Amino acid sequence: MSTEIGQQELAEIVVRAQRGSSEDFYRLYSLYSRSIFNFVRRLSGSANDAEDLTQDTFFKVHSELGKLREPKQFKYWLFRIARNEVYQKLRRSQRTPEVSIDDDEVLYYDFLSDDSEDQDPERQVLSLELRQVIDKTLGGLKPKYRDVFVLAAFHKMSYEDITRIVGRSLLSVKTDIYRARLALKEALKKYLEKGKR
Hints:
single chain, 197 residues, Rna Polymerase Sigma Factor, Chain: A, 0% strand, 2 domains, mainly alpha, Arc Repressor Mutant, subunit A
């Protein structure tokens, strides 16, 4: 995940990038490209699509950056653009996106982290199996459940931050995360029960 910086420092970088500093725009790309890649990969269900979608997102950001009136809101604006790019692509291809996990299931965060190189081989296999179960489960959910869930579970965003990105009410966001969580718990329960047999 990207290295977080303070809102004031971020705003200063954004302002310089808006004034044409390619060095500062690259800094924004360096700070957020991995988070955006992971976000769009989980929404689209494809690493190949995610590479293109990440590039498309930053091309759009580059061309629209001058229109951003509140530099401190850059992060939310960026995720909104990425989300829109995913849904535009999905509408064009009529594909169902896929996604991932929940904050009550802390145990699974270890398995689902992107740093699998540090895991022993048995743990890597379990991690892969769990990801497949979770991706398949969330791939069957409505997009409105998936996007809020990815932001909450993988990007550790607060409900308030998610409402800024998706433009929906706090109650709607909480409800949809809860519904995604229930579906995931049921799938994980079935997976674990199957493993005991």
